[in-house]
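As agreed, record copied across for absentees:
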Amino acid sequence: MSSGYRISLPRTGMFLLAMAVSMIPTDGLPGQSPPQLLTATETLRIDGEDHQFSAINGVLVAPSGRIAVLQPQDHQVRFFSGEGRSLGSFGRRGAGPGEFQSLLSVAGWLGDTLWVNDSHLRRTTFIGPDRRVQRTLGWPRGLLRAGEVGGIQPRGLVVPWGFLSANTIITPHASSIHDVMVDGKPRSVSNGIFQVDTIGHALALVAERASEESTECIKRWNEGQASGSITAPFCGVEQFDVSPDGRWIVILRPLAPTGTTVASRLVVVDAHGDTVIARRLNAPAERPSAQQRDSVAQSMRVLANGGLGRTMPAAAVRAIATIEVPTQFPMVDGVLVGSDRTVWLQRPAAGSSRAWWIVSADGGAVYRTVIPTTVALHVVSKEAVWGIDTNAEGVESIVRYTIRGWQ
C-alpha cells in the first residue's frame, strides 16, 4: 500500500516564486532563425465573476464547439456555446448516476459525448449533448494480461486518459505487466500507455515510457507501508499528453544538454501505436541564478523539516538530501497535443508573458506564439486555444485566443 506521497519542488523555490527567468527575446539559437511568430488574439471571454465560477480544474471544447467547464467544488460541469452563452449545468454532489465526489481534470470527448472522471468514486461518467447521463463506467481494478480475470492480482488502478471507442480505454500505467503484444510478439512492459478494455485487459501497447525508477530528477523512496517520489526543481522529466479525442499521444523526452543548448525528443503516436512524428527540438539553455539555487536549497531544507505541515518519513528525508539542483532549466514546462495533432510546448515564463512553441501536425515546422502568464492553456489547436485566466483577485475566467499568421 502506498501513502501517496508525490512531491514536486517549485521551479524557482518556495521563496522566489515571482522571480522572472531571463529569456533570449527571439527564443532562437545563436546563428539560427527563431521559429516564425504567430499572433494570439483574445476573441472570447467567459467572465468568472459574471458566471460566479468556483475554482476551475478543466476546460474542454467539443467538435461542435460546445465548451465544458469542470467545477469540482460545486460537483458540476458547466456548459457554454461556442459564443460563450450559458447552456446549463450537469451534476451535483453524491454517489448516484450523474453525481460526483471528486472531479478530475483528466476528461475528454468520445464524438460529441463528454466523459469525466471521478477519483473518489473511481468511475467515468459519459454526458450526452443533451446534458443527460449516457453511461457510467466503473474503472477496472487493474491492468490484466489477456485471459486473466478480475480477481487475479490486478496491477494498479486503470484511470482513463482517452477513449478510442466506447469499450477501449487509453491509459498510462506504471505497473509491470508481462505478455503484452508488441509488434505481434509478447513481452514485458514496466511503464507505458496502453489500450485497455473495460475489464482491464491490456489489448495493446500504444507507447512505452521511461522507467519510473529513481533518476537524477525523480528520487523514489520506500519505508514500511509508505512509498513515494520527489521531483527535483529545474529538472527535465519526460512529459506526455493525450489528445481530447484519444487519438493522439505525445511524449517529450529530455536529452542531455550540450553547452549552450538544451534538447528534447518529440514523439507523437496514434492510438494504435504507429509513430506519426519523431524529431529533435533544440532551444537555448537558461541557467538558474545563484539566488534561485540558494532558494531551492532552502526549500528542500524546509521540506525535509516538515515545512509542508506533515512529518516526512526518514526515507523521504534521505531522498531529499540526495537531490542536486541541475545547472540548466528544462527546455519546456509542459506539453499539450490537440485533436488536430498540433503539439504545443510551454516554454519558461518571462515576466508577464510566456512563449509557446507549436509543432505542426506533420512535424515538419515549428512556430511560436506568446500567451500571458496568467493563462493556463487546456485545449489547443491550429485555429485557436482555450485556457483559464486568473486575475489578481484569484477569479478564474475562460478565454479563447485565435491564432493567425500560419504559412
